[in-house]
């Protein structure tokens, strides 16, 4: 089956998504778009020149309107965060960019994936402006935070990252929630691990939250890990793998959450993210999840307030 992926925005993040998608072999056509037309053309040419080193896939530039023929469109357009700037600081400008794209993709038959920050609120904006059902508008959400958590846990425990099963949910940002109660190492509860203590959880959760700031302070942006994360998400959708991933979408009832986009474990396949899992949380985690939802609702409400002069 012909699988075409469109990427809107060919900055640091969009190009990392592109190269990771090419190496994954998930698509056989990759279409790029950027408001800087020459940049998109240059990236397409550069990526195409490496065709001998990734599975067969054609790369070209395309308009947003043409991308309505894609199976998945990735939105990586907008401004990146600067040192000391939170993801929510990016909100108003990037919301305008995403809303314009959403209106142009209204009635789109495929799935839209949001990567631009603040990804949760922008996922809600895209859902509202495109008119697509929540299952077909996904944000990368806490997939990257979950990957960071697993890597850091593996490093601390001297184990392969793939042996670590732990999740971050809620906002992709300062109010995110690590689900320590369900974290496992090779099937063994993390809290039963020798010499693991509550202080370890607090320190590691803070390290995960600060990970992006630490990278941005050194190189100006985060791009490689989110590129890999997004390519993994695309592969799960295009191949119908039905994996459980912590993606962001507008919620419709799980944990009593309605009309707010945030990350929860979700079954991802050909139909996007139709099934959200309401797993067992302890009382502190559930309360933290609802606080995270409140932060995101407040951020979304700011969009209805005119900017101050």
Could you please describe the fold and organization of this structure?
The chain is 40% helix and 20% strand. It is an alpha/beta fold and 309 residues long. It has two domains: 4-139, Rossmann fold (3-Layer(aba) Sandwich), CATH 3.40.50.720; 143-302, L-2-Hydroxyisocaproate Dehydrogenase, Chain A, domain 2. Helix 3 (91-104) packs parallel to helix 4. The model has no long low-confidence stretch (mean pLDDT 94).
Please outline the helices and strands:
Blueprint: E1 4-8, H1 12-24, E2 29-33, H2 37-48, E3 58-61, E4 72-75, H3 91-104, E5 111-114, H4 119-130, E6 137-139, H5 143-157, E7 164-165, E8 168-169, E9 177-178, E10 184-185, E11 188-189, H6 198-219, H7 224-238, E12 243-252, E13 258-269, E14 272-276, H8 283-302
Parallel strand pairs: 1-2, 1-4, 2-3, 4-5, 5-6
Antiparallel strand pairs: 7-10, 8-9, 10-11, 12-13, 13-14
Helix pairs in contact: 1-7, 3-4, 4-8, 5-6
* Rg estimate, integer Å: 19 Å
CATH overall fold name of the largest domain: L-2-Hydroxyisocaproate Dehydrogenase, Chain A, domain 2
What is the terminal-to-terminal distance?
A: 52 Å
Number of domains: 2
Runs with pLDDT <50, length 5+? none
Order of helices and strands: EHEHEEHEHEHEEEEEHHEEEH
Give a nutshell description of this structure.
The chain has 309 residues and is an alpha/beta fold. The protein has eight helices and 14 strands. The protein has two domains: 4-139, NAD(P)-binding Rossmann-like Domain (Rossmann fold, 3-Layer(aba) Sandwich); 143-302, L-2-Hydroxyisocaproate Dehydrogenase, Chain A, domain 2 (Alpha-Beta Complex), CATH 3.90.110.
């Amino acid at each position: 089956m012909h699988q075409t992926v469109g990427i809107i925005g060919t900055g640091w993040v969009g190009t990392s998504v592109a190269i990771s998608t090419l190496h994954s072999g998930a698509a056989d056509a990759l279409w790029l778009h950027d408001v800087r037309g020459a940049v998109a053309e240059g990236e397409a040419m550069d990526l195409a020149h490496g065709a001998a080193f990734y599975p067969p896939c054609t790369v070209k530039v395309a308009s947003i309107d043409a991308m309505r023929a894609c199976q998945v469109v990735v939105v990586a357009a907008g401004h990146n965060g600067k040192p000391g700037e939170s993801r929510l600081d990016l909100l108003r400008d990037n919301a305008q960019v995403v809303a314009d794209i959403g209106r142009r993709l209204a009635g789109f038959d495929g799935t839209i994936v949001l990567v631009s920050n603040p990804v949760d609120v922008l996922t809600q904006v895209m859902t509202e402006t495109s008119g697509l059902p929540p299952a077909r508008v996904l944000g990368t959400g806490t997939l990257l935070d979950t990957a960071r958590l697993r890597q850091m846990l593996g490093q601390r425990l001297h184990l392969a990252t793939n042996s670590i099963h732990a999740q971050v949910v809620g906002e992709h940002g300062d109010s995110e929630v690590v689900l320590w109660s369900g974290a496992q190492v090779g099937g063994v509860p993390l809290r039963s691990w020798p010499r693991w203590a509550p202080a370890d959880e607090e320190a590691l959760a803070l390290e995960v939250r600060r990970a992006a700031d630490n990278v941005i302070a050194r190189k100006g942006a985060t791009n490689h890990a989110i590129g890999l994360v997004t390519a993994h998400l695309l592969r799960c959708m295009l191949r119908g793998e039905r994996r459980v991933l912590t993606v962001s979408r507008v919620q419709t009832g799980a944990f009593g959450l309605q009309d707010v986009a945030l990350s929860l474990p979700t079954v991802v396949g050909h139909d996007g993210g139709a099934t959200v899992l309401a797993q067992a949380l302890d009382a502190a985690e559930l309360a933290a999840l609802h606080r995270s939802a409140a932060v995101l609702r407040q951020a979304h409400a700011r969009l209805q307030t005119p900017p101050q002069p």
